[in-house]
Amino acid sequence: MPSPRPRYLAPSILNSDFTRLGESVAAIGAGGADWVHVDVMDGHFVPNLTIGPVVVESVRAITSMPLDCHLMVNEPEKIVPWFADAGADSITFHIEAARDAVALARSIRGRERAGRRLRAGVSLRPATLLESLDAVLPEIDMVLIMSVNPGFGGQKFMPEALERARALAARREALGLDFDIEMDGGIGASNLAEVLGAGVNAVVIGSAIFRAPNVADATRNLKTMME
Description:
By secondary structure, the chain is of the alpha/beta class. Helix content is 33%, strand content 20%. The protein has one domain: Aldolase class I (TIM Barrel, Alpha-Beta Barrel). β9 (180-184), α6 and β10 (202-205) form a beta-alpha-beta unit. α1 packs parallel to α8 (215-226) and α2 (53-60) packs parallel to α3 (76-86). The protein is globular.
């Protein structure tokens, strides 16, 4: 039996109050969050426009937590350097958008921040077949399974994502690979145990944290549930 993988809680600042972003980041840190999840959308790959490298640079200046940047953009190759230079620790791109996923993953992993190489992740829309990831799996540190259609926070969880996570975990074991499985979309206290039970070890949570009366307490409670 392989030893249990570390579990990571990554609150998504897309759902935070941007007039108090520094306080929000401090609150999730106080609550024991592991990563800060940053949703980057270009208004083309998904129908929303969100965070740019200037915001990442600002968040980098106020926290030592790793910054987990999810690029929901066309031509991610063009902007990976911007986010790497702004202070990202992990950069996830979409398999549907990359011209050459293997080359892009290698280029991300070829960069360093604070003496450590960047982590490369790959994501896919709910309708995209897991088989589309086969070539890139040996080159990445994480697969992000979307449990909603990417583009907006606050959507309802798609339970079929659980079977995708189980299938991916089985594929990882069969290939002898070592990547994290992250899930994002509609996750909260009511379904967190199910998500973890499907083999997910990194969880992105937005609304259930940032719409709670106390952000630090909500973070702490969810982190406790993961332990």
